Amino acid sequence: MIIFYRAQRYIFLALLIFFSIQANAAQGSIKRIITLSPHLAEIVDAAGAGSALVGVSIESDYPFFVRSLPVVADAYGCDYERIVALKPDLIIAWVGGNSWAEIHQLQTLQLPVRVMAFEQISDIPRAILIVGQWAGTTSAAERFVSQFNQQRRHLQKQYARVPSKKVFYQLSLQPLLTVTHRSVISEVIEQCHGENIFGRAVGVAPQIGIEDVVEKNPAVILVSEQAGDAAAIQKFWARYPQIDAVHNHRVVVIHSDLIERYGPRILQGMQQVCQAIASAQD
Fold this sequence. Notes:
With 282 residues, the chain is an alpha/beta fold.
């Protein structure tokens, strides 16, 4: 699932909710949790509260056990009847994937819904700690976050001397979509000493022309695995040998769920991205 922001005017409200529940939630009072986005299920599990999950959204596939849980939301909205039947004492939504109409309806049904906002990598460990407070699994959450932060520092140190390279991130083949600095994907690229060639473009996931990519001549092309199978991707780029990334065989398919979700596995995605950039030849 591709993770992006909704309108900026919603971000501030979501952050207010985010911090207010940090202060007010009763520690250990949460026993039945529903998540409305795949990365939220990952965060709950990382916080040590995976056993409290009773419902998830479509495309929730990690950790593996969540695949057997009831699906209560998809791209078309929430299954309110099913949510009520599961008797949750916490529903976690997020501002980038759930509409305020859905959230309002859950509140109207007097269901305990809370909204989180994610804008950067550092929001991931913060969310894990807060969920740990809610679920009474603070120690487990703190251990995970400590390991997360240590791994992130290790990656930064490992690739600290890598020269900057121009990078193009491809979300899809048709239309040709990329990401700007408003996406966490761009932050990952920058952390790996990559320069997102469309970082300053308008929007979050703009459609661009192939001639724009040719002109900017990236040293590395990172392709979301959701863009198509490997053969189709290689066939597409083989037509543009004048691009350095193509000429030097630096078209790399990235596991999209690792880098496009605001989840704890994002560091695995960062490892892939950093390795691709570090191995690029001038």
